[in-house]
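Module 6 notes. Inverse folding takes a fixed backbone as the condition and produces residue identities as the prediction. Think of it as a translation problem where the source language is geometry and the target language is the twenty amino acids. Below is one complete input and output pair. Work through it position by position during the lab.
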């Protein structure tokens, strides 16, 4: 498992990017959110976070997904931040689609970073 954090090159104050590589579980995703929270990387200027799952192997069960959604719903700092998920496989795209429909969080799946950035910056 590997997770890289970086700021978007054109919108460094507005968009954070998390790139996931290797086998990634629900626990890994929760740990990545905790790392961002504890490092105070998410401030009032951040409009959105892009979670790039396009080059990882997402190994997450539905119970793990449930734990992830409960975790995310409990984080007040995420209530007004757009959470874009880049994915290119049907088995992975189902998770952000379920997250979008089952929570009041702003979660959407995308195939490209450009479309995710457009949604975050323009709505």
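Target side of the pair, the amino acids:
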């Amino acid at each position: 498992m590997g997770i890289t954090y970086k700021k978007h090159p054109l919108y460094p104050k507005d968009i954070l990017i998390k790139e996931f590589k290797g086998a990634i579980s629900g626990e890994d995703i929760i740990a990545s959110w905790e790392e961002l929270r504890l490092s105070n990387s998410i401030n009032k200027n951040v409009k959105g976070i892009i979670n790039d799952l396009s080059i990882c192997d997402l190994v997450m069960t539905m119970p793990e997904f449930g734990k992830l959604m409960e975790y995310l719903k409990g984080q007040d700092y995420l209530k007004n931040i757009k959470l874009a998920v880049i994915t290119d496989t049907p088995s992975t795209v189902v998770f952000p689609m379920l997250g979008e429909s089952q929570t009041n969080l702003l979660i959407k799946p995308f195939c490209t970073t450009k479309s995710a950035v457009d949604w975050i910056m323009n709505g």
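Reference fact for the lab report: The radius of gyration is 13 Å.
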